Amino acid sequence: MADRQGSWPAALPPPPGYLPPRNVPPPSPPFTAMPQRPTYREPHPVTAGPVLIGLSATTAWFVLFGSLGSSLTSYAWWTIGAALAAWAVAVLLALFGDRGVAVGVAVASGLALSIALLFVTLRWVATYDFPLW
Questions:
Q1: Within 13 Å of residue 99, how many CA atoms lie on the same side as its CB?
Q2: Which residues span the membrane (predicted)?
Q3: Under a CB-based contact definition with an 8 Å cutoff, are residues 105 and 57 in contact?
Q4: Residue 36: helix, strand or coil by DSSP?
C-alpha cells in the first residue's frame, strides 16, 4: 500500500440539523437555585521559607546544647532537655505563632533526639550498660 503524499481533504460539514441554530441561547445549568459550593482555603498556609527557618534555628539550638556535653551521658541529657524545650516552643508556635516555623522546629528536634538516642542505644548494645543512669 502506498503512503499518501499530499494533504488530506478537509472534513465535510455536519448534516443539516446536527448543530443548534446560532441565535438560541444555551440552556441554563441544572440546580441554578442552589447556592454555590464554598471554596475552602488555608488562612495561613505553611510555606518552605518558615519551615527552613525553623529547621536552621533548631539545628543551631541543638548544636549549642549538644556541645555542652562532655560525655555521651551528658550529651544525651542536654539533648533531651533541649528537645523538651523545643517541643514546648513548637506547640506554642503552632497555637499562637507561625505554623511553618513550628513544623521546622518539630522536625529538627525529633531528628536531633533520634540521633542522640541512637548513640545511647549503640553504647547500650555494645557495653550492656545503659548510659543514662
A1: 8
A2: 46-69, 75-96, 103-126
A3: yes
A4: coil
Hey, is 23 helix, strand or coil? Answer: coil
Question: What pLDDT is recorded for position 66?
Answer: 92
Q: For the residues of 52-80, what is the DSSP string, one character each?
A: HHHHHHHHHHHHHHHTT-SSHHHHHHHHH
Please spell the DSSP secondary structure of 80-124, one letter per residue. HHHHHHHHHHHHHHHHHS-HHHHHHHHHHHHHHHHHHHHHHHHHH
Half-sphere exposure at residue 46, Cβ-oriented, CA atoms within 13 angstroms? 14
Run of H or E residues at 51: helix 48-66
Residue listed under C-alpha cell 549503640: 122
Cβ neighbourhood burial of 46 (10 Å; 0-12, 13-18, 19+): middle
Domain coordinates in residue numbering, the chain: 55-127
Candidates 71, 70, 58, 68; CA nearest to 113 is: 58
Average pLDDT for runs of 10 along the chain of length 133: 65 75 69 73 87 97 95 96 97 94 97 97 96 89
